[in-house]
Amino acid sequence: MEFSAECAPCLLRRILFQTRLVDPSKETEVMSACVQLMADEWEPGIRSAALATKVHRLNYDMLGVDDPYAELKREANQVAFGLLPRGQELVEASDDRLTMACLVAIAGNVMDFGIGGFESPQELRSTFDSLVAEAPEPNDVPRMREILKGAKEVVYLFDNCGEIVLDVPLLKELKGMGLKVTGVVKGEPIITDATWEDLSISGVDMLLDERLTTGAFAIGVDLDQAPKELLDALRRADLVIAKGMANFEALSGTWVRPIAHLLRSKCQPVSEAIGAKKDRNVIRIFE
Predict the structure, then answer these.
(1) Does domain 7-63 bear CATH number 2.30.30?
(2) pLDDT (tens digit, 9 = 90+) per residue, 147-171?
(3) Could you tell me which CATH number the domain at 70-286 has?
(4) Stretch 86-94: mean pLDDT
(5) Lower CB count within 10 Å: N or C terminus of the chain?
């Protein structure tokens, strides 16, 4: 997805948010440098994920930290663990377990901080039931079910901490279909995304046949830096399931197909690009 004018203030808002998490005294210095870098690198056609990765790299380096979101990520996991029994209950009671499992997984995607939405993981406690009650729009679950019927292997691209815990019901549904599931987390900490250690913290590792990382500090997946093992898995998969907006921004228009994007459409540029209204549960397949 191309970086748009509306992406600029959103990116800078997140940079300011994470700078204040670490050292508010540096906000003027950091913001000035990040604004300059964004202006220098912003050229027609540049992908939003690529430019955001460069700006985040500068931000982290200036702050001198590996993970400014460490505490928020721990809190997000705790909140999600508290909601997981409810999510599993909803799936088991549903006449359409696959759709409900997708909705539970999408509900965790709202825990995305610094972009004008949730500012605390605790907010999901009071909104969880209403989020999973919203029908997906668009809803490509019927096509997903068709693809999975003849499938052998799925690659699952995880997104945020906390959210990864709420992926458990969907992973259980996939495993119940007899599918091989390869799970992919980030190669290095970036924003609130799940990394290698979060696989075991969440318990997700027990549901996976293979575990891989993106191999890099990157928003979404940078295919130019991805390890051969990941590229091979993406090519081999009967379906790639990609959680969150960043994976859509990074992989839209690429050769990674068929791909099912599961996300909450939290911004107008992504909503328009994926064919959804803003603030909707989205299950969208590109083939």
Answers:
(1) no
(2) 999 999 999 999 999 999 999 999 9
(3) 3.40.50.10880
(4) 98
(5) C
